[in-house]
From TrEMBL:
Name of the protein described by the UniProt record: tRNA pseudouridine synthase A
Reaction equations catalysed: uridine(38/39/40) in tRNA = pseudouridine(38/39/40) in tRNA
Record domain Pseudouridine synthase I TruA alpha/beta: where: 6-102, 143-244
Organism of this sequence: Faecalicatena fissicatena
Catalytic residue positions: 52 (nucleophile)
Amino acid sequence: MNYKILVQYDGTRYEGWQRQERTESTIQGKIEAVLSKMCGEEVQIQGAGRTDAGVHAKEQVANVHLKEQVDPQEVKQYLNRYLPEDIAVSEVTEVPERFHSRLNATGKIYVYRIATGEVKKVFERRYIYDFGEKPDMELMCRAAEILTGTHDFKSFCANRRMKKSTVRTIYSIDLKEKEGEIVITYTGNGFLHHMIRILTGTLLEVGMKKRSLSSVAELLEVRDREKAGFTAPAKGLTLEKVLYSPLQKESETL
């Protein structure tokens, strides 16, 4: 049987989603360890995306094939009983055998939070980048418009040895400002290594007038990571949702 699992986690103390041989501190590794205990044999899961160390998720998606049929509710209860307190499973459902959490995904929605006030957000410090300055929102929005669409985002990829295509489509970059905070929502068909964090750093440099709007357009042409902005901290980034149906309909529900 194939099961779809919706997972939420605080990524602060983990080395990212993907299982690694050098450490047990990964989200995938923790979930697989519990499922393997439940089934009495080694179990491997597939995740929709590899969130980096320190990045959070409200709705990461995974799927797992189990040899024996198990009540999805029992799987959910077992996982939540034995997973660490900073990882939780919100839903488990049976899905068609060919469903694959990563290959069937049509897009992802990420949210990046930036604190702009003078006073630190003490109780939210794990989930927000304490920038401490107020950038020009209009300039940031204009830069976001330049970056929206289908482009080669090699300048925004931390993996300099990337051999696969670095062309991606960003459907929208939505910036909203509230008291002491800027929230940036990115919706796209996929994102490169550190791409959103580099995009955020670049937008902030534009907002602080350390970078011109024309330079943003040039980044899409030069395809050089060294020319782009700084990499914003991982803690401000959260995977909000993985999309499996028409993007416009999904994004309207947020």
